[in-house]
Amino acid sequence: MMFREVFRLGFTVLSLLALAACTSSPRTPAPVETRGSSPKVSAQTVVTAPGAETVKAMPGAENAGKPGFYTVQRGDTLTRIALDHGHSWRDLASWNSLPNAHLIEVGQVLRVAPPNATVEASGVVVQPLGGAEVATTAKPAAAPSPAPSANDEGLGFAWPASGSVIGGFDEAKNKGLDIGGKAGDPVLAAADGQVVYAGAGLRGYGNLIILKHNNTFLTAYAHNQALLVKEDQKVRKGQKIAEMGKTDADRVKLHFEIRRQGKPVDPAKYLPVR
């Protein structure tokens, strides 16, 4: 009798527990109401996601991807960007109102074409020059380089050193010619121009001089042991501008580049046969 009562009591308790489990609903947090207007986001910040930290927009971000502008990548320097686009670093600093040319940030967007130039989507720059508009290509597609003196705009490039060529042009591995010689051998300006860079701030080039000859051509002279000219100085074709050396190189040599609208071209196709 007692066993039957205990069994009945236990069955009743289990039934009540099962009923409670079926009728109760899961507890959920109370809804949160946000009062007031949405937070304002300044022009200098970008909200990535709800609850995420805001990210500062880089200077010039509104121009990213537009013709005539360049987005700074890791490892870039203003000098290298200027060389790759055929301009002086001072021009880029001026066009972008940079208070310190040594401070540029990854993601920053820089103007790399003159402010008074119209850059079309194809990369063609239409720039006023001497009262007339002249069309040039900012970053031309890969194409065979012109024959010597055929398209050098009358500059008539000359050899910058008398030594033999020890390294030929390779667009991927060697963006110019390597010319051998002895430490102290003269390095000569390949054409009339103006010094737009003289220093050692470009990795892999050592003591470097860059000459601007016109709106199309630059020449670069690397690994010198001594620099004999200063920035903004005008030089004449054949003038001694440096002494050959091996700064940032494995041997004494002159690394010589010709750049057409910032693009390296084979100097051998522009220099006279010797």
CATH class of the domain at 165-269: Mainly Beta
Mind summarizing the main beta sheet?
Answer: 8 strands, antiparallel
- The residue ranges in which pLDDT falls below 50 over 5 or more consecutive positions are 22-26, 28-48, 126-147
Helix content: 10-25%
Spatial separation of the terminal alpha carbons: 125 Å
CATH T-level fold name of the domain at 165-269: Glucose Permease (Domain IIA)
Give me the number of helical elements: 3
How many distinct beta strands?
18
CATH homologous superfamily assignment of the domain at 165-269 = Glucose Permease (Domain IIA)
Q: What string gives the helices and strands in order?
A: HEEEHHEEEEEEEEEEEEEEE
- Whole-number average pLDDT? 79
Task: Write the SSE topology.
Elements: H1 2-23, E1 45-47, E2 54-56, E3 69-71, H2 78-85, H3 89-95, E4 109-111, E5 118-119, E6 124-129, E7 132-137, E8 165-167, E9 177-180, E10 186-188, E11 193-199, E12 207-212, E13 217-224, E14 226-227, E15 234-235, E16 240-243, E17 253-260, E18 263-265
Antiparallel strand pairs: 1-2, 3-4, 5-6, 6-7, 8-9, 9-17, 10-16, 11-12, 11-15, 12-13, 13-17, 14-16, 17-18
Can you walk me through this structure?
By secondary structure, the protein is α+β, with helices and mostly antiparallel strands. Among the domains are: 61-137, Roll (Membrane-bound Lytic Murein Transglycosylase D, Chain A), CATH 3.10.350; 165-269, Glucose Permease (Domain IIA) (Distorted Sandwich). Helix content is 14%, strand content 28%. The protein is built from three helices and 18 strands. The strands form five sheets. Strands 8, 9, 11, 12, 13, 15, 17 and 18 form an eight-stranded antiparallel beta sheet that branches. Strands 5-6-7 form a three-stranded antiparallel beta sheet, with no helix packed on it. Strands 10-16-14 form a three-stranded antiparallel beta sheet, with no helix packed on it. The radius of gyration is 33 Å and the shape is globular.
